[in-house]
Amino acid sequence: MDVIVESSLTSDQKHSKRGSPAIRISAIARNAFREAVRDRVLYNLVLFVLMLTGAAIFIGELSGGQERKIIVDLGLSAMLLFGVFISIFVGVGLVYKEIERRTVYAIFSKPVGRGEFLLGKYLGLCLTLLVNVLIMGAGVSLALIYVSHGWDSLVLNIWPAILLTYLELMMITAIALLFSSFSSPALSALLTFFVFIIGHFSADLKSLSTTLPNASARWLFAALYYLLPNLANFSYITPAAHGNTPAFSHVVMTSVYATAYIGVVLASATMIFSQRNFK
Amino acid sequence: MISAQQDSNTVRPWRYGLIAVIVLGTSFSVLLSKSIDARRPPLDNSAEEERLYVTGNSARRMSLGFSGLIADWYWMRSLQYVGNKILSVPAGVQIDDLGQLNLKLLAPLLDTATTVDPQFLEPYEYAAVVLPAVNVDEAIRITRKGIEANPAAWRLYQQLGYIYWQQGRFQDAANAYDRGATIPGAPPWMQAMKARMAAEGGSRETAREIYLRMYEQAADGQVKEMARRRLLQLDSFEQREAIRKVLSAFHQHFGRCPVAWKDIAGVLRNTGFTVNESGAPVDPAGTPYVLLTSTCDVDLDPDSEVPYK
Fold first, then answer.
1. Sign of the alpha-carbon torsion through B256, B260, B261, B266
2. Do residue B66 and residue A237 have CB atoms under 8 angstroms apart?
3. ipTM tops 0.85
4. Do residue A64 and residue B64 have CB atoms under 8 angstroms apart?
5. What range defines the domain where residue B266 resides?
């Protein structure tokens, strides 16, 4: 890790070691991406392709003429599920591995800030997820063309839902990074998974915050509703399978919400991580 | 170099040993599974008919963004459930006449599929066609639920009208077609169906119109096939009535029934029937009719594609 950061910094001769944070962040991000590829994270694509190919060939026998809907449901749900697993299990190891291998000491002996380190790691995993999501999206599109025996309007209509799924994965990754900045990988994975589950129950949290008789309980659930990520906003797989696309304003609002939430989570992670002693 | 060769020589027998363990172990476990299966007591049929313990609303809450996939699973389970039941009865049973099969899980399965994904229209269509023979109240409730969730789907009104028509509730059917006809995008025949239903709900022509529209609009292959065969049946009803008239005229003229179809083949051919080489008129599916000489009547061949009931 430190060697790569070092080489990247020295290769850019216009900058001194104290050069732009963007270069340092991008060097860390590139390295995190390479590490994920070396760790065979993208091998999940093989499983995805096999599953989708099998579904495209055999689902017609079982679905009563609903192959297109089921291909979209299955493909995009698998995209979300595989993505969540990558976000959680790779995300919680991003920082922990560097600490365990003690490479983090070498990195912080260089002029690399804690925030830059976390942001670089985060962007590296987001890049891995982006590659994953794009390839899976292309796979679903091809499967749709196969089952429809030609062009299908769903091929285009699924992409806004894919974008929302990717934003959800970015949020989960940020949360995994936050937990891993202060706890063990196992606990971080568990906590992140809980947040993923509760994030999809946001409608129930809101309902509890208005219907419970106890005022403090109402306040607690209202606080949870606003503090935990509202992941239901990003669930557009089911309507996408019916050929519906989200309103442009919904995509913009949820993108802004995701960006703001990720900013808050990464800032919190940086604050916690800054308290840790790596000297 | 020499030590590496020695290493590989010493490792190789172990590898063969491991491969042998894998192959023999796999074969042994397959044989053991077969033996366990053979000794296992048969499955309790009542377990298969156990009520669903997860309600539609619970399934939707627990779906975590995978609601579409869960709805698909319930939909495919509904099809498998009906399919397995159909396999247990003689071939040729129509999917709108499955009351004898005790499909008590079908309504909860379709209800769950449509609660988890209310925009999924095919389970509503299936409910409208298959469920009335099992539980007509549930069929109406699920279709009405679909209308509430999809107010722009005029096809659901067509299906509700079909359920009412089957029950002989022609005024309710006319109202359903009328409401559906007001939805933007609804075809003009929805309004015509309203008028026909109110004026002559029980007529054969109304039935023909209903099945024709169902055949044109159905997305589900089984529903389409059912509508096609019902249309064949309606044609066959008319053909049999015409044949009976010819048989009756023959009886009046000769004081006996024809011995074979060839006795009246000429008359039938002149009336517009397709007649095969032995003189027998063929039904709309292309199968020759059966002449019942004892009762001087005509009947469908049991192997015919035209539904008997």
1. negative
2. yes
3. no
4. no
5. 232-299
